[in-house]
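Quick start: load a record and inspect it. Here is Crotonobetainyl-CoA:carnitine CoA-transferase CaiB-like acyl-CoA transferase:
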Amino acid sequence: MGAPPQGGAVSGPAEPDPRRPLDKDPPAMLQGMRVLDLSRVLAGPWAGQLLADYGADVIKVERPDVGDDTRGWGPPWWGPADARMSAYYLSANRGKRSVAIDLATPEGAAMVRQLAAEADVLLENYKVGQLARYGLDAASLMSLNPRLVYCSVTGYGQDGPMAQAAGYDFAIQATGGLMSLTGEAEGTPGTQPQKVGVAVTDLFTGVYASTAILAALVERGRTGRGRHIDAALLDVQVAMLANQASNHLIGGTVPRRMGNAHPNIVPYQVFETADGHIVLAIGNDGQFTRLCELAGHAEVATDPRYARNPQRVAHRAELVPLLADWLRTRTTQAWMDLLEPHAVPCAPILDIAGVFTHPQVLARGLRVDLPSGSAFDHADHPANDHPAMPLVRNPMRVDGQAVVADQAPPALDQQGDAIRAALARGEGWPTR
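Running the structure step on this input writes:
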């Protein structure tokens, strides 16, 4: 199948409709699990959203009046001016209920303890030791509820010389080595180390945290006891160095920025075409042979300098300019049409608009539109005044069905009155 033009939308006789409803009964493998989410910004909320997608009942505890920091990280905004939410906030808080509680007051801390007494999981990303002031630390709450899986997300972990330091994704990408590997090669005019275009360390930490939480819940099924999980952004970033860390530890080298090139595979980078760019991701010798044959240069694949990947890596400086000359002779789409049917890994470079109109993204239903009206009920805005909220669904499918919470991200304190009333009545964890 041909790919859409570089940087644009899919061309065709009819404009595809990106909207896709949720499956009628999405899988809810964590149904009955209760998650108390005290976290804010991205890493912790991302983990909480994943658990909500899998069916957990997630209550998000936020600061009165201001809520999660990301509520103010706009524009763009969603909703009316008096109840608007930032697009950033919406990306990480699907499927949750919101209650505003001041943890620093005795009354607020008591409410959190009530919720924690019946929770299965607690997520928090406060500075090390801060929650102990209010009796909401892991030791205190796990004494109250020995079955609690308590997950602490911090920049640098619960111990070590930087345990008290604030951790932000950008800083961790720098300290954790990722920026030293990202960007054009040193010496290229006008360049510098680059961060990745999304907060990947935060996101990976959220994913790592959720897998650790699920593992702890499985173990709790055998032992009846919870765990305290220490999830540090720096630890995750170092783990994410993957093959580059191994290149250093095994090879004794210090990996450097290489632009879009790969340290261990050639050709594996971006090339110019007659009208733009294309990615080649040649992962084995057979693919390289097919590339050469299709380009009309079969003899290059048998050249001893290029026949095997280790030789191609050794002779990168001679091979890459040769390939660059070939790639400039055709358009991106012409190369896609030539290479893709013959299993030569390649891809156009799409902008985000192009991504959401790509036929495979449409077929997989990665955009989901959730009803949003109830989020503004407290502001006296009729529900039918608000169109469905466009979000990106959880990428997992189970038995062919999309896994995603069916509730839009909540407005600040949207369910607060009902939750506080249930706690005041001594009813424990409030039902949805």
